[in-house]
């Protein structure tokens, strides 16, 4: 067995994977490959073991995930990589500046492959542990977030200097282009629990500070009139039963708002919304 492992490692060391070949391996059927720091990994068998679920891995399948991997994972995750190594990337991935930098060529602000800079415009307290943050970008473009999708938010930890990345669902995009609202539940430090790294960073962040967004991400999208995409498949529904708690309400608000605004959308909705304490309710 040990000899076989050495043989596999030797083959992986010699194999060259092109960008086109990498891009073809982006699903359960084709296999899930990703590139990290110039090396290619087949993580198909790891999907069910991923602590964050397989959806986020499928979103990244077939691409270079170097930056996101080191932002989101610790040394323990890096130690797992050699077991999935299958080759080296033959060509470097395109940099963000090569993809699209001309603002006139873009129709929406969000890009799934580039971190976009935003500024903290306003912070408003909704409850004792919930704030609403308004983020603004320079160019008056549509946000470009499909209904049901979410974004990745990246901030710099003021203590360690490391990047922190978390997924959030905007409550709404502003009608005036160039702004978006994020609902943030603050996890304060207690005797038995450390404070949330991202939420405490956002809580203390001053107006005018900069953050970064990337997206859309997620495997659900509401297309209207009961039609939706779920994990790549189109479904038609007559009724949604929406179950949420705390700030987990925000993805539901997207769908509810879209249905309410469309006079021709007769999709029924039942919302079950829970909180631990009455003071936690923010709507």
From TrEMBL:
Residues at which FAD binds: 166, 168, 183, 185, 197-198, 250
Main location: mitochondrion
Subcellular location: Mitochondrion outer membrane
Positions of the Cytochrome b5 heme-binding domain: 14-90
Gene3D superfamilies, sorted: Cytochrome b5-like heme/steroid binding domain (3.10.120.10), Nucleotide-binding domain of ferredoxin-NADP reductase (FNR) module (3.40.50.80), Translation factors (2.40.30.10)
GO molecular function, one term: metal ion binding
Record InterPro entries: CBR-like, Cbr1-like_FAD-bd_dom, Cyt_B5-like_heme/steroid-bd, Cyt_B5-like_heme/steroid_sf, Cyt_B5_heme-BS, FAD-bd_FR_type, Flavoprot_Pyr_Nucl_cyt_Rdtase, FNR_nucleotide-bd
Keywords for the protein's UniProt record, in alphabetical order: FAD, Flavoprotein, Heme, Iron, Membrane, Metal-binding, NAD, Oxidoreductase
Protein topology in the membrane: Single-pass membrane protein
Gene Ontology cellular component list: endoplasmic reticulum; mitochondrial outer membrane
Domain FAD-binding FR-type positions: 113-223
CDD domains: cyt_b5_reduct_like (cd06183)
Cofactor dependency: FAD
A matching Pfam family: NAD_binding_1
Protein family according to the UniProt entry: Belongs to the flavoprotein pyridine nucleotide cytochrome reductase family. Belongs to the cytochrome b5 family.
Name recorded for this polypeptide: Nitrate reductase
Record organism: Fusarium oligoseptatum
């Amino acid at each position: 067995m040990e000899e076989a492992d050495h043989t596999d490692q030797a083959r992986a060391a010699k194999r060259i994977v092109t960008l086109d070949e990498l891009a073809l391996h982006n699903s359960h059927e084709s296999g899930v490959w990703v590139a990290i720091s110039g090396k290619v990994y087949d993580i198909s068998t790891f999907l069910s073991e991923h602590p964050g679920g397989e959806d986020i891995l499928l979103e990244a399948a077939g691409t270079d995930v170097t930056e996101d991997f080191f932002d989101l994972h610790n040394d323990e995750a890096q130690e797992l990589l050699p077991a999935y190594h299958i080759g080296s990337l033959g060509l470097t991935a395109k940099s963000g500046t090569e993809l699209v930098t001309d603002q006139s060529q873009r129709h929406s602000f969000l890009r799934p492959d580039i971190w976009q800079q935003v500024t903290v415009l306003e912070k408003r307290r909704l409850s004792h542990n919930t704030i609403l943050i308004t983020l603004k970008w320079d160019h008056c473009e549509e946000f470009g977030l499909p209904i049901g999708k979410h974004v990745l938010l990246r901030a710099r930890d003021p203590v360690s200097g490391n990047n922190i990345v978390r997924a959030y669902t905007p409550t709404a995009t502003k009608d005036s282009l160039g702004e978006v609202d994020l609902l943030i539940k603050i996890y304060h430090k207690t005797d038995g629990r450390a404070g949330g790294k991202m939420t405490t960073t956002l809580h203390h962040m001053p107006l005018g500070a900069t953050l970064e967004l990337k997206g859309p991400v997620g495997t659900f999208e509401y297309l209207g009139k009961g039609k939706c995409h779920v994990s790549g498949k189109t479904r038609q529904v007559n009724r949604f039963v929406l179950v949420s708690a705390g700030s987990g309400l925000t993805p539901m608000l997207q769908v509810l708002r879209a249905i309410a605004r469309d006079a021709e959308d007769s999709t029924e909705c039942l919302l079950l919304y829970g909180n631990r304490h009455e003071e936690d309710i923010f709507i």
